[in-house]
Amino acid sequence: MSAVRDRCVVLGVTGGIAAYKAAELCRLLVGDGARVVPVLTESAQRMVGAATFTALASEPAVTSLWDDPPTAIPHTGLGQRAAAVVVAPATARLISDLRNGRSGDVLTATLLATRAPVILAPAMHTEMWEQPSVQDNIATLSERGVIMVGPVEGPLAGGDVGAGRMADPAEIAAAVSAALTPPSLAGRRVLVTSGGTREPIDAVRFVGNRSSGKQGAAVAVEAAARGAEVVLVTTEPSVEPSACLAGVRAVTVETAAEMAAAVEMEAPGADVVVMAAAVADFRPVNPAGGKLKKGRGVPTLELAPTRDILAALGAAKPPGQVLVGFAAETEDLEANALAKLRSKNLGMIVANDVSKDNVGFGHDTNEVVMYTNDGTRHHVSLTTKQQAARAVLDTVETLLAAERAETPAGASQ
Ligand code: CTP
């Protein structure tokens, strides 16, 4: 379940041009189940209409301390009831006001009155962003625990390009969710793999597959949000924005052999290993060093099996470790998944039927069935890969608790 579901999230919008993107952030948070209260400053309302936010949030946008009819204690009420306050875009002025404890309108009052996590998505022109005074405010607020998302480099208003562009709304939504996620995996080490391996044919071609790396990255990000120390061994290091991957150590690999080496190095110390990567089962035996030229005739590819990384981990599984495999199937989902669960000595296998629309490889959505070694079966109907990742980690936590109960004291690493 999403960490923001049924939680009150105050969405502050200030008067930067990126204010129009805050509407998308509002939609994403509402889509995740949050009860969003939009709060627009006077300048924000010159950029975007309060009616847009009222409609998206199904909650009247708050624009003034002097509502008509008046609400009780408007300057503290919102801050006290918020589970999180996110400001996107956050202008240099809002940042300065928060740093200095200045409360001049309903948004700054809410920020001063809250004990909830505060997330800021700064957005301004590069010259402003690089001002020592602004940087000093950012550093001070960060030290005080305010969570900063972005800004990133890119096109700015007026045709300029540089640092100061507001982070992507999806990144900001992910940061809000992470801030509200209980640290249920604190102290745990989680190793995740993602992406499809590429086995070279020659200097420019490879044998590969359609895996995008999105599901594994979502598992890594969610595990980090739950407080785990996370290593992501991946062929797709840029699939998630850098802010989402904050707290995740990424190791980039390309071939099955490289993935095997990285995984075997990291796995012994891990409490949980999630093999979401689509590892090639076969590799070309003698890849050409240069580019194969078509004029030299049709080449014959001789293939050799790769090492089954997960099966090797299963055979050497330390006590207490939870091993999770993924099974991308096009037929006999349950039988194939259960066979892999047993033969690879796994705690769980996450199976998906990749022949279905919008499921698995390349999509942003997934539908999975999770089978555990203690006989449970849990179907997750078509949802985002983030939600699927949460379901996977919820089950992992149950398995970890069972392992802890079973593992004799002193036997775990
Ligand atoms: N896997 C692995 N090393 C391989 C092949 C697969 O670690 N050389 C892992 C995958 O990361 C996945 C699980 O094993 O977690 C199942 O992978 P899958 O490709 O579905 O199954 P295979 O065991 O390769 O069997 P098949 O291709 O016949 O379905």
Please give a structural write-up:
The protein contains 14 helices and 19 strands. Helix 1 packs parallel to helix 3 (about 50-55) and helix 5 crosses helix 8. The chain has about 425 residues and is α/β, with parallel strands linked by helices. The mean pLDDT is about 95. The strands form five sheets. An eight-stranded mixed β-sheet has the order 12-11-8-13-16-17-18-19, with helices on both faces. A five-stranded parallel β-sheet has the order 2-1-3-4-5, with helices on both faces. It has a two-stranded antiparallel ribbon with strand order 6-7. It is globular. Bound molecules: cytidine-5'-triphosphate. The site of cytidine-5'-triphosphate has 14 residues, from helix 12 and strand 16.
Short summary:
The protein is α/β, with parallel strands linked by helices.
Please render the helix and strand layout as text:
Elements: E1 8-13, H1 19-31, E2 35-40, H2 42-47, H3 50-57, H4 74-81, E3 84-90, H5 92-100, H6 106-113, E4 118-122, H7 126-129, H8 132-143, E5 147-148, E6 152-155, E7 161-165, H9 169-179, E8 189-194, E9 199-200, E10 206-207, H10 214-225, E11 229-234, E12 248-252, H11 256-266, E13 272-275, E14 282-284, E15 303-305, H12 309-315, E16 322-329, H13 333-343, E17 348-353, E18 365-372, E19 377-384, H14 385-406
Parallel strand pairs: 1-2, 1-3, 3-4, 4-5, 8-11, 8-13, 11-12, 13-16, 16-17
Antiparallel strand pairs: 6-7, 9-10, 14-15, 17-18, 18-19
Helix pairs in contact: 1-3, 1-9, 4-6, 5-8, 10-14
This protein binds cytidine-5'-triphosphate.
